[in-house]
Amino acid sequence: MRIPWSRKQRRASTRIATASAILVCGGGLAITAATPAQAAACTTVEVVSARGTFEPGTAGLIVGDQVYNTMKRKLQPLRSTSLYSVKYPASIDLSGPSKGTIDLVNHIKQQAQSCPSQKFVLVGYSQGAFVVDNAIGLKSLGDAKTTIPSEFESRIAAVMVFGDPSHLIGKNITTPLSTPYWNRAKDFCAAGDPVCGNGFNVLAHLSYGGNANEAADFAISKL
User: Which family does it belong to (predicted)?
Assistant: First the structure.
């Protein structure tokens, strides 16, 4: 059954598509197929990343890969790290965010059960932020009607989104009591970014790699 979108949801989707066109045509980045994620080892902390639309890289060249690599460098050798790239189309497929949410939630359930001491850091960029938003209970575009089970909430150390289009439908992961994770959440929205704000600088939407160090420090502070 096709779920009707609100005007705000359509606006958010249009802005993602616009930014994606810049990423593909003008951002100087080659599109590559996502590498299928392997079962992760029982590390101290696992970064679970949902990449942006058409974003290349294992977990997202612009955000996910950089945040993970920075965290890994800062934590090792005292604490071990692993990375999981959410499996979803990350394209203009309107069902993509729902597919991503289902994969993220299923992975957390399986991994948390297999590794009782492991902590998780959730990262979502652009369309990937929709995936993370929905997984933590902030219903947004493409709500898959599934969230991380309450018994695993304490295992989510930090949640971070970058260029989150949910702003355009009036939602923010850091709003007090909006989700069980609001006080361990961080939201990055660059000045001028049209996807998470009312700006007109599409290149601002591609700038979040510069926040990797700040994001890593925030996540580590919550472990």
Answer: Belongs to the cutinase family.
Active site annotation includes 193: yes
Please report the domains of the chain, with CATH numbers, ordered by start residue.
44-221 (3.40.50.1820)
Residue 2 pLDDT greater than 80, yes or no: no
Predicted model pTM: 0.85
Between these two residues, 46 and 29, which has the higher pLDDT value?
46
pLDDT digits (tens, 9 = 90+) for 129-150: 999 999 999 988 777 889 999 9
Of the residues 65, 103, 164, 193, only one is catalytic, namely 193
Rounded distance between C-alpha atoms, residue 181 and residue 76, angstroms: 26
